[in-house]
Structures are given as C-alpha cells and as structure tokens.
Write a sequence for this structure.
C-alpha cells in the first residue's frame, strides 16, 4: 500500500497531486475561482472573494488547491505576483503591518534580494513614513502585474487592522486596482457585515457547505485510492460500506476534517466494525476540539461546556441560568457561536433552543466523563440502525422467517429468559427490529399500540445498556404523540437521535 | 464578461453609462460636479471609468476614506499629483519651497512635518496652484468618499476644520477657472452639510457645483448587462433574452443587483426560467445573510439621522412601503398622524425632503410620493413585518 502524505490539520503541507486527488464537492467553485483570478490578472477587472465556513470545512484545502492551479497557468506567470498570508502567525496591528506581511508572502514565493533590501530600509523610518513608502514600494514592484493576495482568517486580519487600517486598505485597492483577493474566514464578521465599515458589500461571499453523505463517501474513496488501499476502496463502493459511513456522517456533521481524520483509521475491517474506529477519531480529534475552544471567549466556553454536558437542545433561559449570565448576553453570545459554527438552533414556538452543532464535538468534550461508554453504545446502535440488510442479526435459537416481525418480537419478548448472553450487536439488531415496528406505528399514529410496546420493552430492556437509546427514542415518540405532536418531547433527544424520530413522523426542524 | 458583484470593474465592463458620462464631461466644461446616488448605483465605477478614459486630460482619482485630518488630505493630494505627473523631477516646486520655508528645512518625503497640521490651508492652495500652472489644460480631481472624509475630519478635528476645508475648496474653484472637482461618496454630502449647519455653518460651499444624480440603469441597458454576464459565465438557459429581461425588471435596473442575480445563476442547479429569477430575488429579500446589502437602507437612517428623526423617517417609509400607488403629501401626513403624535407639518415636510435626497423616495410629476425603487419598497415592507 502506498501511503501518500495526507495532512489532517494542515492541508497546505500536502502536495498538489494529493490536494487534487482528494478534492470533492467543490470543483465548479474551484473552476470559477480560477477563472476570476485569471480575469483579474489579464484585465483591469479585479475580483474579491471571501469563503466562509466553520473550521474543518475545507477552506485551506481549497485555497491551497487554487494556489497550485494558478501556478500552473503559464499565461499568467509573467503578470502575477502571489502573496499568501497563511492561517496562523499573524502579527498585524496596522495597515503597515499588513503591507510588511504581504512583502513577506512575496519573498516566500520569489527570493527577490533587491526587494528584500528595499523592505529592510523601511524599518529605519517612522511608522507614518514607513507606511507611505511601503505602499509606494509595493506599487512600484508590481508595476503592471497583479497581486494575488491569499488571506486566511480574514476576520483576524481585520481585527488587527481596526477601522482605520481597513479604510487605508480599501482606499489603496480602489485607487490602484493592483490586487485581487481570495480570503477565508470561519464566520461572517463585523468587518464585512456591518454597513458602516469600509468593506461592507465589497467581497463576493461564498458560504461553504458541509459534505453530504455521498460526498463524504466519495472523499473516503478518493483517499483510499490515493493511498493504494484497494480493499477499502472496494468496501466503500458497496451498500454496506456506505451504511457504515453514514454513521460517522450522522456524528460528524459533514466536516471535511473529521472524514480526513477518520480515513487514517480505516481498513475494510475497522470500517465494518466501526466502534473502535470512531473511538480513534474521538481520541485524535479531542485536542483539535479543545483547541477550537481557545478561539472563543471564556463566557462562550462556559456555554459550550454546558451544552456538551446537557447533550440535547436547551432554551436560552436555561443556558443563562446555569451559566449565571443574563438572558440578553446569552442570546448575543449564542448568536456569535452560531455564526462561528459551534452551535445550531431550533425554534420551538417563539423560543430558540440551542445545542452543539457537531455531535462529535460534544462527545469529544464529554468522553472522559463516562470512559466513552455512551459513545460506544451510540455507535453500536447507529451502526445497526443504518444497516440496510435486514437479513443481518438472526437471533440464535428461535425460528426465523415463519412469523411477521410483530409476532417474532412478541415471541422474543415472552421468551426473553431463553436468550443466551447476547453480544450487544444482536441486541442492537433486536432494538432495530423493535424500532422498525415503532416506525410503522408512528406513521399510522397508533398511540395505544406504541404505548403497549413501549411498556413491554421498557420492562425488559431498561436493565440493559444496549437498550438505552431505543427506549429513549420510543419514549420521545410516545410523548410526542401524547402531547398532540408537541415538539418539546423531541427536545429530550440529541440531534443524531432526533433525526431518527423525525423520520418516523416526517417532521422537519424549524 | 464575468460577474463581479462588489468588485472592481474594468472600464470596458461599465455598461449603460456612456450617456451619463457624456453629460458629466459636458457639465465639467463649465463647472464642478457633485455626483450623488444611492449606494450601489455605480458612482465609483463611473468616475473611475472617466479617469481611465480621460486621454489628453489631466485627471486625478482619489479615494479619500483613508483621510482623517487636513494634513492627510494635503499629503494624499501631493502624493497623487507627484505620482500622476512624475517625470523623475519634482513637480510641485512652489509647494516644496513653501514647505521648506514653513518647516525650516527641506522636506522630500511623502509625509509632511507637523507644521502642516497648522498650515494645511496654505499648503493645499500651494499644491493646487502648482498643478494648475502646468501646461495641459483643465485639471480634474475625482474625489471619491469626500463626504466620508469630511465626516471623519469633523469628528477628529471639529466642525470648524471641516467647514474650512469646504470653503477652501470652493475658493480654489473660484480662483482657478481651469480647476474642476467631482465630489462623490457612499454617504450623502447633504448629510455632512446638515450636521455642519447645525453647528452654525452658514456658507453654501457647493452652490457653484452642478448636482447630478446617478440613476439606475435604463432597463434596456440592465438587460444588456445581464445578457453579457449570462454569456460570459456560460450559463445554460433556453432563452437568454427573456431571462436577461426578467432579471433587469426584477431588480429595477440596479447593476449591482444584476451582478448578484447572475452570479447566483452561475451556481444554480437545475433549469432556469423566469420564475427562477423571481424566486431568487424574493429569497434574497429575506435572506438573513443579506447578500444584496439591503439592511443598509434601515441601518443608514439610524447611523446618520438624529435620534428624534429616526422614528419619523421609519414611520413615513413604513406607510409608503404598504402603498400600491404614489400618495400626496397630505395623505401621507394624515396617515402618519394616525400612527404617532406629530403635529409639526414642517418637520414632516423636511423629512420627506431628506428621504428624497437620500434616494429612498421620489415625487412624481403629479406631486405624489412613493418609494424610488419597488425592490427597496418590497424589502422594507418585508423586513419591517408589514406584509399581510
């Protein structure tokens, strides 16, 4: 097996071949972006684009890919100068600092010693003089070329510039038409969203979406192919392989990073078994999620911790109460967290209920509390639930296929004590069969029968950990109907379980 | 032609403005100009096109939003002038000589010494004098974001200084017949002048300038723009003409919005019909991300109007947003009185006038009032929760 280098956290370190090999979902956007940059270099038109999406959504991969594609276009090279301001290590507190970082980016591309000497001379000037000289030097250096400025975390750059620096930047861009920009940011920020600030309406903003199940499977397939893992490739192309990926997709919320991390633990066997692979992802991602906590304020961290511990949606009032913050401040913090992709909300009447957007983040933050047991149960359950093959999980010692599902389960219920010590997978299959009947009853809204089966299986199952999740789903479904479809009942469930019950009742979240 | 909403257009991509540009050059033969328009109408694109295609004329284009003090204003002019006219020698000899006298030593760099904070007026006059003395005919300054510069100077240095700048510029125009200035910007100059008047400013610093309004594109030009963009982006539609026409009509001919809609179409999955365009525009009006920057129309009132004016402005616009035809002033005032305790007709009249100057509303030949752009009216009604 050929293991080409695949970076989990720093895509810009990957080779252009690897970046292309595992690129999914955004080919059309990539082509348009290259066209716009080409247009900016060859004509007087200048495009300014901003890609917005939470961390791990693939922004740096995209920018890296565009960088290499642009570098390959021969026709542009004599008229193009590139400066790439990478993700970390910003020391920008003014427009002058930005200009100096731009020069630094240029030096990384071409080791122009003469330019370096001229930039060095700037440091002996006063800040005001230095700024004017630096801008003039940049214009002279570019001459008739166009500067392609690649800026990651533009929100941080703008924060450093403050309004004065932003005005100077915008002025320079308007007066000189020498620059095209491709920037990224984890969320919309004041600098581009506030109408009183200079860059309001300036950028073409593109919100990046998470991976659909099909795209996630495609990504894993491409990684497997790039790394020469044929068995895994073949497995991923099967229905069962896709079923396994679906479990991770339910937990990962479409995050590119999670799937790249996941791919590192994948073989055909581990993908099929799944539980240990997911535990490995959790282990690998825990430092990453903990690092993400450092990007938010202490008050926001408190809110995230609280939501992680609750494990289900919570109304603003309750968050405020348990975090000892006012309602107003809590609302404002939650709005910010939502824009940054940490939380999502659902409306219940006039109230908004919030939860962590990525179930995996929640599990990572909580994993130490119960030694990961709840995650194992969840993955086992989801693994069973999303397996299409109904022939799986025949129970030993009982006749098969002679009865309808309902009769079959009735026999299982009354003959519970004849069960040997079943592995959890079998119980998972049983739970799935129960829930399939439940699903059928839910679609007919047959409340009485649902209550009957709920009571039977509660009595039998509540002592078994493997039934925690199915019983929770059943209880929520019964409460939902008893409450005349009051959605509050569903708010007792975390998002990955709520989806299942919603499918039964064909409910859509608001 | 590729879509480029918000970006910098090359002069050849500025569509449908030839007649207006001709009008502007004709006006500039006789006097300076204040170019006013709602945000996103293309003022900057127009003056940049004029600057780029001004072969044989001495034009200087400046974006003044970076300027926050009179010294910076003079510095920016010096830099632009020296750059524009650079032949390897210094061009502003008179200015440099004056500066040396004031400072006591030669100043060769871009940044001016501290003495420029006090003596900016004489230095400004000196640099302009140097410039108009050069052979080459009329000198044109295209000053973008001048109102914003004045707003900042007013905040940083006080109303008096802002007034002095306006008066000095007027005086320069009177002194030098071959000097022309074009003022434009994203906030209205009238907003700045109103706040200066409140501080006691009694002069009329732009009464020698022609006020020209930048309208939205004629529908035929907006259609042409949409068509060129559809072709340029290689968007597959059964009848590009119909789609282009629908786009132009749906966005009231506003070029920025045409750009946005076609940009959206470039990423569209599925068949594109006239209904698609209408749905896109409708969705834009209630999109929380506000891709058309419509929130600006509400926020701007809160930012630039006095607190006591805000509710009056909102009240009038709320009423007009729900009207299907233009209504008379009397009718408007009546409806307003039924919503809020307001008895001062003159205050209402002044606000109506201000809302016209800010391009929210317009008066038709019959004297009745309505929103200037149906699209903005729709947005206002929707976002103020006034739809039934």
């Amino acid at each position: 097996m050929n293991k080409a280098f695949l970076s989990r956290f720093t895509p810009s370190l990957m080779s252009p071949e690897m970046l292309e090999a595992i690129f999914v979902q955004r080919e059309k956007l990539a082509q348009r972006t290259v066209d716009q940059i080409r247009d900016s270099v060859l004509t007087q038109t200048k495009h300014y684009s901003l890609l917005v999406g939470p961390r791990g959504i693939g922004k740096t991969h995209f920018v890296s890919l565009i960088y290499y594609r642009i570098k390959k276009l021969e026709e542009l090279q004599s008229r193009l100068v590139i400066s790439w301001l990478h993700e970390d290590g910003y020391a920008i507190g003014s427009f002058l600092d930005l200009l100096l970082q731009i020069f630094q980016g240029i030096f990384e591309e071409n080791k122009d010693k003469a330019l370096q000497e001229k930039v060095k001379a700037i440091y002996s000037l006063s800040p005001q003089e230095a700024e004017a000289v630096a801008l003039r030097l940049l214009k002279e250096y570019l001459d008739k070329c166009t500067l392609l400025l690649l800026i990651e975390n533009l929100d941080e750059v703008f924060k450093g510039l403050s309004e004065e620096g932003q005005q100077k930047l915008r002025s320079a861009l308007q007066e000189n038409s020498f620059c095209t920009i491709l920037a990224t940011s984890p969320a919309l920020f004041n600098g581009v969203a506030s109408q009183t600030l200079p860059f309001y309406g300036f950028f073409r903003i593109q919100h990046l979406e998470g991976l659909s199940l099909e795209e996630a499977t495609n990504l894993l397939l491409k990684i497997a192919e790039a790394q020469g893992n044929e068995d895994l490739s073949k497995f991923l192309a099967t229905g069962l392989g896709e079923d396994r990926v679906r479990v991770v997709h339910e937990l990962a919320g479409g995050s590119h990073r999670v799937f790249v991390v996941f791919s590192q633990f994948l073989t055909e066997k581990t993908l099929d078994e799944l539980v240990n692979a997911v535990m490995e992802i959790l282990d690998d991602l825990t430092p990453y999620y903990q690092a993400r906590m450092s990007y938010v304020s202490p008050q926001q961290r408190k809110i995230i911790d609280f939501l992680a511990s609750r494990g289900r949606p919570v109304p603003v009032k309750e968050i405020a109460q348990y975090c000892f913050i006012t309602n107003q401040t809590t609302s404002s913090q939650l709005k910010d967290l939502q824009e940054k992709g940490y939380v999502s909300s659902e409306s219940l009447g006039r109230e908004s209920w919030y939860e962590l957007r990525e179930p995996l983040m929640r599990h990572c933050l909580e994993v130490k509390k119960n030694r990961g047991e709840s995650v194992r149960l969840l993955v086992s359950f989801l693994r069973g639930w999303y397996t299409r093959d109904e022939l799986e999980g025949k129970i030993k010692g009982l006749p098969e296929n002679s009865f309808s599902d309902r009769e079959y389960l009735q026999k299982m219920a009354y003959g519970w004590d004849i069960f040997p010590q079943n592995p959890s997978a079998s119980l998972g299959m049983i739970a799935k069969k129960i829930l399939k009947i439940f699903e059928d009853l839910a679609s007919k809204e047959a409340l009485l029968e649902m209550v009957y089966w709920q009571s039977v299986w509660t009595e039998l199952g509540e002592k078994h950990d493997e039934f925690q999740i199915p019983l929770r789903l059943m209880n929520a479904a019964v409460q939902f109907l008893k409450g005349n479809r009051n959605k509050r009942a569903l708010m007792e469930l975390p998002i990955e379980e709520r989806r299942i019950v919603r499918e039964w009742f064909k409910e859509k979240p608001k | 032609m590729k879509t480029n909403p918000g970006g910098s257009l090359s002069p050849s991509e500025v569509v449908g403005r030839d007649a207006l540009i001709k009008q502007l050059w004709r006006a500039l033969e006789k006097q300076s100009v204040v170019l006013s328009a709602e945000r996103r109408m293309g003022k900057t694109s127009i003056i940049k096109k004029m600057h780029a295609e001004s072969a044989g004329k001495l034009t200087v284009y400046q974006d003044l939003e970076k300027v926050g003090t009179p010294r910076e204003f003079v510095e920016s002019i010096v830099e632009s002038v020296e750059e524009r006219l650079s032949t390897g020698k210094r061009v502003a000899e008179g200015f440099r000589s004056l500066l040396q006298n004031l400072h006591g030593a030669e100043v060769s760099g871009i940044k001016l010494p501290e003495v420029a904070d006090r003596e900016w007026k004489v230095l400004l006059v000196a640099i302009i004098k140097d410039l108009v003395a050069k052979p080459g005919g009329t000198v044109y300054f295209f000053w973008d974001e001048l109102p914003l510069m004045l707003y900042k100077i007013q905040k940083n240095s006080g109303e008096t200084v802002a007034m002095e700048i306006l008066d000095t510029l007027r005086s320069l125009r009177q002194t030098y017949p071959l000097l022309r200035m074009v003022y434009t910007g994203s906030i209205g100059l009238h907003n700045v002048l109103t706040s200066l008047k409140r501080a006691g400013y009694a002069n009329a610093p732009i009464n020698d300038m022609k006020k020209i309004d930048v309208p939205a594109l004629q529908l035929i030009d907006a259609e042409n723009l949409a068509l060129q963009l559809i072709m340029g982006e290689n968007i597959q539609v059964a009848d590009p003409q119909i789609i282009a026409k629908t786009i132009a009509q749906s966005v009231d001919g506003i070029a920025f919005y045409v750009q946005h809609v076609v940009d959206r179409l470039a990423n569209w999955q599925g068949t594109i019909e006239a209904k698609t365009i209408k749905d896109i525009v409708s969705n834009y009006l209630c999109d929380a991300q506000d891709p058309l920057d419509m929130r600006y129309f509400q926020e701007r009132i809160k930012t630039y109007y006095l607190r006591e004016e805000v509710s009056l402005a909102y009240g009038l616009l709320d009423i007009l947003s729900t009207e299907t035809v233009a209504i008379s002033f009397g009718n408007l005032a009546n409806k307003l009185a039924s919503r809020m305790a307001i008895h001062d007709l003159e205050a209402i009249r002044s606000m109506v006038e201000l809302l016209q100057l800010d391009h929210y509303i317009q008066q038709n030949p019959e004297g009745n009032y309505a929103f200037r752009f149906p699209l903005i009216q729709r947005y206002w009604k929707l976002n103020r929760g006034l739809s039934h």
Observations:
- The two ends of chain A are 47 Å apart (CA to CA).
- Residues 390-505 of chain A form one domain.
- The first helix of chain A runs from residue 16 to 21.
